[in-house]
Amino acid sequence: MIKRILSFFITCLVLCIVMSLGALFYITEQPWVDFSVLEHYDPGKPSLLLDDEGNEWGRFQLDKREVISIDQIPSCLIQAFLAAEDWGFYKHSGLSIKGIVRSILVNIVSFRRAQGASTITQQLVRLLFFEPTKSFQRKIKEQILSIVIERQFTKEQILEAYLNHIYLGAGIYGVEAACFTFWGKHISEISVDEAASLASIVRYPQRYCPLYDAESNKKRRNLILKNMLSLEFISDDQYNTAINKSVTTIKRDNQALAPHLRETLRIFLEKLVGKEKLYTGGLKIQTTLNRKMQEAAESLFNKHLIHLNKRFTSSLEGALLSMETSTGAIKALVGGNSFQFSQFNRALKARRQMGSTFKPLVYAHALAQGKSFTEIELDEPYTLMMNNKEWSPGNANNRFQGPITLAHALSSSNNIVAIKTFLSTNPQKMVHLAQACGLRPSHTYPSLALGCIEASLSEIVAMMNIFAYRGIYSEPHSIVWIKDQWDTKIWKSSPQHKKLISHHISSQVAKILMHKIEQSKKKNPTSWFASDAFGKSGTTNEFRTCIYVGATPNYTTGVYLGEDNNRSFGAAFASQTAFPLWKQFNKTIAQEQEHFPFDPTLHEESIHALYGTPCSSQDHHAITVLTDQSVTD
């Protein structure tokens, strides 16, 4: 009992000292704190990411905050915050004496700090001038500052600053940003129930933010609505209407779109323009992203991985990247199954063995060295010496076909003929061509012909794109230009474009790569899109990685699947795993029928896949090639 009485008198003594100091500063009005933040607060402007149609799909800012004036804030919102936090706001001068006394009594009875007594002014002081640590000294300073602020600023100025600074969960500061994030509208359009929902968050944002727990938000919202009714802020009808509404929030599309690409851009832009300019400078960043293609890619990718993980009882990951054939502009990018789980951008950073997706480059080099797709090479058991050891490669089906054309060897992804072709056409020059394509081969071993080289999905897509666009290499890129807040262009991208192989050769390789797709279209035309297409699959040893990269006249797209730890995930080829996703994506985005711009000097002809002689296009072994002149000449 004595302890309680002593605590009570000590607390009262402290309170008297605080009030006396507050009165002193009230009278002297000493400019000991810079209050300009209340009058001229400017958090800067967020930098916007624009899609290829000029619409926002993401933004960079230090926090989600939109500053508005008190005139834009409806009375129901102000009343909700007063009912929740400080119903005597317009009567006190920064401190609530009744609240302090009530708090002291409750704290003494409970022997702990069970209840605070912060007014809105005190909360604003805490937000602007103090770290979120509790101490006796901080509390005294907070109360003194509250009295000084009440003296120097109007109630409207204090409310405006408070409602623009208050934290409302999920990285959101201020009622305007919260209203737009939760319900997709401006604060001027808010309803009574929504106003109470916002006011309910302040006490405990981690619990009451509707993005985290709508049910907890609703319970506290209803208490605030009851307070608003008792304070006669709202009528009985308004109360009954509001209390029966559920708490729902919308999903903002531009918050979720292309998270892996956005993170990659953030890191790049921080280095390019600096953090301050990126987060507060109001930049406009014109990206190459196409919203419809990106949405399709994300939806199809996630559904496909769910299906495959159930099928193989694995933890598959992977990526999808689609770029415009004529420019190298990235139109869609999926860097993984879950950005929340892993921010690693597998489309740009994961390096996996290419497998057979490397083979088109082998044959392109062979054609440049004078080879022809009508030539015959022997598919047979084959042994080589590598690092003083015998190496006996085989084919995926563990069979050998004997004499076959180079055209059939590429179309059927034959290993033996690819190695022989590689070794017969100056391997060192082949390495130089691969390096010019953005790949990184470091040796001329025969295994290079089978794609024993690591590359990112973006590098593989860029290489394959050469055959879709006249032999020109186009560097993948995702930013076009950057403008400052005054609409002045301060940076422009300059992606690399260079001719690596002739249009003559790229057309011939692309035509061979079309063969399997053309066969599939004949068998089941309704399952395909109208445009021309070609592609190449790649499956690495022990089914560790499955890749499929293919092109239409407009877009070159790649898909890779595999576990992050590079373990085997099951006996399945890329044609069974990666290819279906590639096909579905292109079917979703495909438009009118279009054809590849093949070299007009070439002639289309059907040859026998094994013998290289002319044959009917209806022949079971027929394969269509592009040649300089008829093979019958």
Description:
- The protein has 633 residues and is α+β, with helices and mostly antiparallel strands.
- It folds into 2 domains: 2-32 and 69-250, Biosynthetic peptidoglycan transglycosylase-like (Penicillin binding protein transpeptidase fold, Orthogonal Bundle), CATH 1.10.3810.10; 314-480 and 496-627, DD-peptidase/beta-lactamase superfamily (Beta-lactamase, 3-Layer(aba) Sandwich).
- Helices cover 43% and strands 15% of the residues.
- The chain is built from 24 helices and 22 strands.
- A 5-stranded mixed β-sheet has the order 2-1-5-15-16.
- The model is unreliable at 23-32 and 103-116 (pLDDT under 50).
Topology, element by element:
Elements: H1 2-28, H2 36-40, E1 47-50, E2 56-60, E3 64-65, H3 75-85, H4 97-110, H5 120-129, H6 136-152, H7 155-165, E4 172-173, H8 175-183, H9 192-201, H10 205-208, H11 214-230, H12 236-243, H13 253-256, H14 259-273, H15 275-280, E5 284-287, H16 291-312, E6 317-324, E7 330-334, E8 352-353, H17 359-368, E9 376-379, E10 384-386, E11 389-391, E12 402-405, H18 406-411, H19 415-423, H20 427-436, E13 454-455, H21 457-468, E14 472-474, E15 479-483, E16 489-492, E17 497-499, H22 503-513, H23 515-523, E18 534-539, E19 545-551, E20 555-562, H24 574-589, E21 603-608, E22 622-627
Parallel strand pairs: 1-5, 3-4
Antiparallel strand pairs: 1-2, 5-15, 6-7, 6-20, 8-13, 9-12, 10-11, 14-17, 15-16, 18-19, 19-20, 21-22
Largest sheet: 5 strands, mixed
CA radius of gyration is: 34 Å
Number of distinct helices: 24
Query: CATH superfamily of the largest domain, called what?
Result: DD-peptidase/beta-lactamase superfamily
- The helix content is 40-55%
Find the structural class using helix and strand composition.
Answer: alpha+beta
Return the CATH class of the largest domain. Alpha Beta
Q: Which stretches of 5+ consecutive residues score pLDDT under 50? A: 23-32, 103-116
Number of strands: 22
**What is the total domain count?**
2
End-to-end separation in angstroms reads 116 Å
Integer average pLDDT: 85
Q: Which fold name is given in CATH as the topology of the largest domain? A: Beta-lactamase
Quaternary status of these chains?
single chain
Strand order of the largest sheet: 2-1-5-15-16
